[in-house]
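Sequence in, structure out.
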Amino acid sequence: MALYSDFRIASEQAVFATAFAKRGLIAEHGIAWMLPRIVGHANATDLLLTSRKIDAAEALRMGLVNRVVAGDRLLPEALALARTLSTEVSPRSVHVMKRQLWEAPYQTLGEAVALANTEMFTSIQSEDFREGVAHFQERRPARFTGR
């Protein structure tokens, strides 16, 4: 389920494995679709077919996790990230950029640029853009509404 997360933070002690092949199973829940998009085809093939365990450092090198922290820092780091996402960035911007990230692999560069240009025009007209400029100029915390 972690593969479906936007961010994956692991403690230094974390160990990862896909044990399917060792159990006579297949890659379930869309893992064969998600894993190559996160770690690349070669790494996904390695992890799925061998079922070998990897440590947090290797998971970070291959892009399976975004960050590795000391075990006692895991919860504080995750909470700090959640706080940043909930208070410092526009929910509207996050929504649009997540959609762009998921659609881009199925678009040509021209299609992606055209969509981005349309979305930028809409963004410039949004309440969140006005708030983004205002909180920067007034040197105060943002109060984004997602509109």
